[in-house]
Amino acid sequence: MASPSSSPDPAHSATMANTAFRQLRGDRSPSEFAAAVRRSAREIGEQVSCDARYIGRVEAGEIRCPNYAYERVFRHMFPGRALGDLGFAPREAVRGRHGGAPPQETYEFDFEESDVLRRAFMTGGPAVIATALVPGAAYGQPPAGRVGAGEVHAVQEAVRHIRLHDDRHGADGLYQQAGQALRTAYRLLDEGAYTQSVADGLYAGAGELAVSVGWLAHDSGRFTDARSYYAEALATARVAGDPALEAHAFCNTAFLARDAGRPHEAVRAAQAAQSAARRLASPRLLSLLALREAGGRAGLGDRSGCERALARAQTLYGRGPSDADPQWMTFFGEAELAGLEAQSWSALGDHRRAADSARRAVGLQDPHFARNIALYGAELSADLAAGGHPDEAAAAGSRVLDLLGRVQSSRVRALLDTTTTRLRPHHRTPAVAAFLNRHA
Fold it and tell me: Is the Cβ–Cβ distance between 24 and 73 less than 8 Å?
């Protein structure tokens, strides 16, 4: 059987071969080069199912532009080279953004019709995602090959449903389902034919969905996956020229970097987010981003820089809400402000002030945000234990344990593990012993 690189599909014989990519392969066989692509993907935390057939299709010109995951891998393999240097066409030239039905060879995925994809997106996912997607069906089935308002609405509903579920129950049980919805959203972008207004809605929705899936990965301890999803959202923001999405992606990247022990990156990402957000006239958004910077500076041990960022966050928050506040910021109220302050004080080793802020966060949080109440309570218990208040720490930790039947969050469990470690020297105290037994 001839290799794909030497015998492209006759149906695509009119496509122009990608000689630049073929030269990059050099003396390696398509299989060897595909293995190198997979290794490079693992180095940056990406996952691609590259094989000899894929390499053959690229070299034959059947894939005129790779998807975002492959693009990041190729840029990692060949630093300093743009897509054009690799022999690919600009993404906007192959997506059919102006409504025409592009040639089949422009697409990386193989589906019979976009309505097949649409039905999978609306009804084919696991139940929790399907409930978010079904409302889009009320808009009717657009003609085959077209993407319209129904699909945009479905993507937006998936984002809304994921955030609602996360607020109430945490991330761990939702991650895989949400990832499936995200992959389908990007297929709509890559394979559909749509108008510019629909494209704008799809880009914004898919980017926000990427941030949401990244957060689910982040909160469930999958830091490498989270970083990849946030990068996907950032790339989408840059392609679409969307400063709100760019600020959101950098905001979450800063939070992730802090949690992953990369405080310098956390500060830089928070500053980049603030730069994008200054175009949006939202003091509350800038307040949140100042808190992200404070978290990074606390990780660096920069107390004065952290305190300045915290003061700036308070001042900006005090300016009140704005019509320009992004929709995704509904979680950011006084409770979250106090909770993020607690995290910064804790990172600086000031556990008394951290406990005061965490206690305030627990008291201010709306009851239906069970996941946040559990998080703030877990932070409170860890800081009380570190500050030499074992009985209070055990009581706070026990209240969090009461919520774990409804809340699934690796971050909450990790904080409880920290509390447990700090309380073990006090295991003879009745309240502490009871907490340790329940936790075990």
Answer: no
What pLDDT score was predicted for residue 164? 63
The structural domains of the chain, ordered by start, are 1-82 (no CATH), 334-440 (1.25.40.10)
Specify the 3-state DSSP secondary structure of 319. Answer: coil
Place of tokens 């699909």: 151
Chain-centroid distance, C-alpha 150? 24
Can you give the pLDDT at residue 1?
A: 35
Report whether 219 contacts 211 (CB < 8 A): no
Q: Hunting for tokens 């055990």 — which residue is that?
A: 394
Please compute Rg for the chain using Cα positions: 24
Whole-angstrom Cα distance, residue 362 to residue 375? 9
Cα 60 from Cα 58, distance rounded (Å): 5
What type of residue sits at position 273? A
Say what the pTM is: 0.64
Q: Please, where are the H alpha helices in 220-348?
A: 223-240, 243-259, 263-277, 283-299, 303-318, 334-347
Nearest to 346 by CA among 403, 386, 318: 386
